[in-house]
Amino acid sequence: MKGWRRKPAVHQVTDARPSLTADIRKREVSYLIKMGIRTICLILAVVVPVPWPYRLLFIAAAVFLPYIAVIGANERSNDAPPPTFQSPEANQTEIPLHRREIGS
């Protein structure tokens, strides 16, 4: 008789998604590390006397790392909680006071 019952799903703490604050903090730290590397590359390209191929490599890193850092900072992880948006009322007939233009 026990075979016909399904076992209830047991959720563990390790299955839980990280909080939105933790996800944002992780992305901020990643961005700051990438921009720190960019700053070091820029300093190495200008200050340190190295051969031109290395200097061009440092300059290329200093140019392209901001793009990579921003894309990485804006990308949400797969296990991050979805954003919560408050949808406006469908029958809204008046513009809210905080959205009115000056002079209207």
From TrEMBL:
Lineage summary: Bacteria, Bacillati, Actinomycetota, Actinomycetes, Streptosporangiales
InterPro entries in UniProt: DUF3099
Full protein name: DUF3099 domain-containing protein
Keywords: Membrane, Transmembrane, Transmembrane helix
Region (Disordered): 78-104
Xref: Pfam families: DUF3099 (PF11298)
Domain of life: Bacteria
Spans through the membrane: 31-50, 56-73
